[in-house]
Amino acid sequence: MRTSKNGFVPKTPPPPPPIRAATTIQQVVDALGTIINWSIEASSRLGYFAALYKRVTVAVGIAAYMLVDRNIMRLRGKLYRPAAGKALMIAAYGLLAAGVAFGLAQ
């Protein structure tokens, strides 16, 4: 059994709670918050990495919104017109029908 110089045996912290797989930035931030809260309760230094990663994740999410999402929302009226959507749908179904017809002919 390992002890320190003062005879104190550090207690092994309980494992962190299970975390689901994240698919959005908000889910990642929530999962990191769970790890940070656990590390505070367990007096674990693992929370330092989680806190840094959370800050970086939030910064990347804000940058992605500022650079990509905001521009797409501004241009969506030009890019996504109902007439263009119908034309693309007709073209897609036409290609699908041609593929099926020529695929069955062979």
Query: Percent of residues in beta strands?
Result: under 5%
Helix proportion range: over 70%
With helices defined by DSSP (H or I, 4 residues minimum), what is the helix count?
Answer: 3
Question: What are the low-pLDDT stretches, counting only 5+ consecutive residues below 50?
Answer: none
Can you walk through the features of this model?
- The protein is mainly alpha-helical and 106 residues long.
- The protein has one domain.
- It has three helices and no strands.
- The model has no long low-confidence stretch (mean pLDDT 83).
Brief synopsis:
This protein is mainly alpha-helical and 106 residues long. It has 3 helices and no strands.
Topology:
Layout: H1 25-42, H2 46-79, H3 82-105
Keywords:
106 residues, 3 helices
